[in-house]
Amino acid sequence: MIRKALSLVLAAGLALSALPVGAQDFGPNTIWGEVPGGITNAANAILQDGSGRAIATVPVIDGKFAFRDVVPGQYVVVLQDGAGRALATSEGISFSSGATIKALFGATRVPAAVAPAGGGLSTTAWILIGAWMLVQFPMSFVNNFMVNCQGDAPSPQDVAPLKEEPPTQIK
């Protein structure tokens, strides 16, 4: 029962996390977005017009950014770290008057993962180890249970046959 309740809470949390919370709070003429997964050091978002000229710069706060009062045009959003290095560029945005649009970052624009400094196992390695444990532990538990119970279970020859008795009659 507790497991089912916990599953429902986790499922609801995942479903709600996918919603663009606060998107309706931006109002019209806004381009907003979230830093894509894998980028942890984005400090600023730069709105560039179709010719690559920087129109506005806003800070990235809690992985989110928003440009307000944007005029119609063609734009991209570039995420930069604190040193001004480009980390990711959004897909092109065709912006019209009164719109509220989320900047999308394609999978090809996210930089590859960097190996951790100082050695050690990467996140991927830990995930693979955890997945292996999830498969192996239940199987070893079942196998051990079956082996340990085989000696305790009576064989069919040792079990007395059931006596079939007629049902009791109610008078």
Shape: elongated
Rounded radius of gyration (Å): 30 Å
Query: What is the tally of beta strands?
Result: 8
Determine the fraction of residues in helical runs and give it as a percent range: 25-40%
CATH-scheme architecture of the domain at 22-109: Sandwich
Number of helices: 2
Which structural class best describes the helix and strand composition?
Answer: alpha+beta
Strand-and-helix sequence, N→C? HEEEEEEEEH
Helix and strand arrangement:
Layout: H1 2-17, E1 30-34, E2 44-49, E3 54-59, E4 64-67, E5 73-80, E6 86-89, E7 93-95, E8 100-103, H2 123-150
Parallel strand pairs: 1-8
Antiparallel strand pairs: 1-4, 2-3, 2-5, 5-6, 5-7
Question: What's the gist of this structure?
Answer:
By secondary structure, this protein is an alpha+beta fold. It has a domain at 22-109: Immunoglobulin-like.
